[in-house]
Design brief:
about 90 residues, alpha+beta, Arc Repressor Mutant, subunit A, three-stranded antiparallel beta sheet
């Protein structure tokens, strides 16, 4: 099954880096607010996992999600990797 929005994963990765550089902590809720909806809800978590794998962000803590669809479920917060920002 082909994605309807094939550029979404790359755009999400770019947005995560931008958000992490601009704010002390970010979450999936911030990404959902910042850019267009993901073709699949699971793609949001995958984008954060990829950003972590590439060394752009690191996990910080959990907080309740503000997304209605998540019904205040726990959401991981992230920050830019300090060693990445200093290079």
């Amino acid at each position: 099954m082909a994605l309807a929005d094939e550029s979404w994963p790359d755009d999400a990765l770019d947005a995560i880096v931008e958000l992490a550089d601009a704010y002390a902590e970010i979450s999936a809720d911030d990404l959902r607010t910042y850019m267009r909806p993901a073709p699949s809800p699971a793609m949001v978590g995958s984008a954060f996992a990829e950003a972590k794998r590439l060394g752009y962000i690191e996990p910080v803590d959990f907080r309740p999600s503000t997304s209605r669809s998540r019904r205040s479920g726990r959401s991981l917060t992230w920050r830019a990797r300090i060693d990445r920002k200093s290079s």
